[in-house]
Amino acid sequence: MKKPEILFLIVSIFLLFGCTNHENETRLQIDEKVKLQDTSEVQKEVRELEPPIDITRMSEIKYLDWNSGVINSKKEYCYHSKNSHYGFYSLIDKRKINTNSIDEIIVGRIVINRKKSKSIWTEKDTTQIIQHIELKSDILTLWQVLKVGLSKHDLLNIIGDNFHYQKGTIIYTEMKGYNCSFSIKTDSISEITIDKRCNR
Fold first, then answer.
1. How far apart are alpha carbons 9 and 11 in whole angstroms?
2. I want to staple 127 with a disulfide (CB 3.0 to 4.6 A). Which of 42, 84, 115, 151 is the partner?
3. SS3 24
4. Is pLDDT of 49 > 70?
5. CA–CA distance, 129 with 151 (Å, rounded to integer)
6. pTM for this one?
């Protein structure tokens, strides 16, 4: 082999390995960016846990009415501060108003924590944090997908890997920072109970 041919061969080999290494480095950089992006998305989801419902828009829900009041702080609730207090909404289904049973008219309860203020407390208060929800009517839809009357099959599809276990007729799960239980009757949800998980 002539000297120029040998030099050309050596240079070609270096270029080939150089390109391969550069390609591998580029791929690693892209992979790292994807990992960082995935982590960022997960952290964003953890930081921005959405509440089951937007209380400030409850007045827009057709046939829903409520009574409200202040309650004493309870140990099982998350927030214990002199600057906040607990309140509740008793949910009324106006479609059932002509029935004789109060149990059919009052279809749920929401417990909230809110900052103490001189202003009158209304559902429009943006400082409210949902602590607890009991629901036995389809009057409210939680997280825009879960409601009383939904089939067990659809429920299991929605909660997916968040499924914890089933005990008797109750399915237990955790969604978006809340412990949830779903009572199942004739293969559909008859009651929903959720409680905010506390960071202690």
1. 6
2. 115
3. helix
4. no
5. 29
6. 0.72
